[in-house]
Amino acid sequence: MSKRKLSRQQQWRVDKVQAERASRAEKRDVRDAEKLAAGEYGAEQPGRVMAHFGRTLEVRNAEGAPVRCHLRANLEGMVTGDRVIWRAGQEGSGVVVAREERDTVLKRPDARGQLKPVAANIDQILIVFAVEPAPHPNLIDRYLVAAEATDIAPVLVLNKTDLLPEDGGELGKLLERYRALGYPVVRTTTADEAGLDALRAQLEGRTSVFVGQSGVGKSSLIDLLLPDESLRIGALSEDSRKGTHTTTTARLYTMNRDEVTDGELIDSPGIREFGLIHLTEQDVTDGFIEFRPFLGHCRFRDCRHREEPGCALLEAVETGKIHPERFASYRRILDSLDA
């Protein structure tokens, strides 16, 4: 559906509201600068962005408590997970005065196709899928390609393993194929108390994000990992066997168990919707890690790995060094980019 064109009067009202907001922010920044100069804020101290609300941030202080802060005028582009320097003000508020260098940043395209940061300083991306709804290998591959493009380590998490047959079935074989490629594979279930032990071990000491299609149980897992947090859980539709998205605000959660910090989680709809629209054909090729030893060895430098003679990838498929189903999945992803 195309966007409705605003009338001249409507556009004037929109511009007026935006100008008033910008004016209020400018006045607030001037007041902050005056307070900083007058010494009304405390000493600089490190913190971590727990949530982002426009130019207002929720920052975790050294004691682990949230503090509502706002940004100085010269700071832009803060996201959940950023490490910042802030100064405490009166009545439990504060002001962020600097952002520390990021180790990693996760981006996704906005409505205009421009890459936009959504979270920072992430150690691993947990790609969650489940026995039900049944995962498709091509969907898993798409998530892996997107994760590889971020330079953040991906981890495959199979949820609802209590529904697997005793021998693991075809899904068990698929998991072993990914494990053989070097990807960590974690099996988990919420059906019993020990079902999250392997997942907890993978999360310990790391900052993680969850991605995956609806209905795989991401919110249910996080709810059990964070028993003190209030998270809404979407019910799995009995008719479609698909779930619905429930999380609406990006937030950094700290996991504590037996008064020991196990790790941190960031959950956000902007992270779950993990697409490939911003990737090039070369990005997709690089995202298949088993292809890497063969790249650059084709007869032609501009080889697109389709039917060209002397293609190193095609030869690797024929000799069993690349699984034919993975290569077929690769071709489907490239075709989808051209569609």
UniProtKB/TrEMBL annotation:
Residue spans of biased composition, Basic and acidic residues class: 13-31
A GO-annotated cellular component: cytoplasm
Enzyme class: hydrolase
CDD domains linked to this entry: YjeQ_EngC (cd01854)
Assembly, per entry: Monomer. Associates with 30S ribosomal subunit, binds 16S rRNA.
Record EC number: 3.6.1.-
Similarity comment: family membership: Belongs to the TRAFAC class YlqF/YawG GTPase family. RsgA subfamily.
Pfam families: RsgA_GTPase
GO biological process: ribosomal small subunit biogenesis
Binding site for GTP: 159-162, 212-220
Name used for this protein in its record: Small ribosomal subunit biogenesis GTPase RsgA
Purpose: One of several proteins that assist in the late maturation steps of the functional core of the 30S ribosomal subunit. Helps release RbfA from mature subunits. May play a role in the assembly of ribosomal proteins into the subunit. Circularly permuted GTPase that catalyzes slow GTP hydrolysis, GTPase activity is stimulated by the 30S ribosomal subunit.
Molecular-function GO terms, alphabetical: GTP binding; GTPase activity; metal ion binding; rRNA binding
Residues of the EngC GTPase domain: 120-272
Species per Swiss-Prot/TrEMBL record: Vreelandella songnenensis
Domain CP-type G stretches: 112-274
Chain positions recorded as Zn(2+) binding sites: 298, 303, 305, 311
Keywords, ordered alphabetically: Cytoplasm, GTP-binding, Hydrolase, Metal-binding, Nucleotide-binding, Ribosome biogenesis, RNA-binding, rRNA-binding, Zinc
Localisation: Cytoplasm
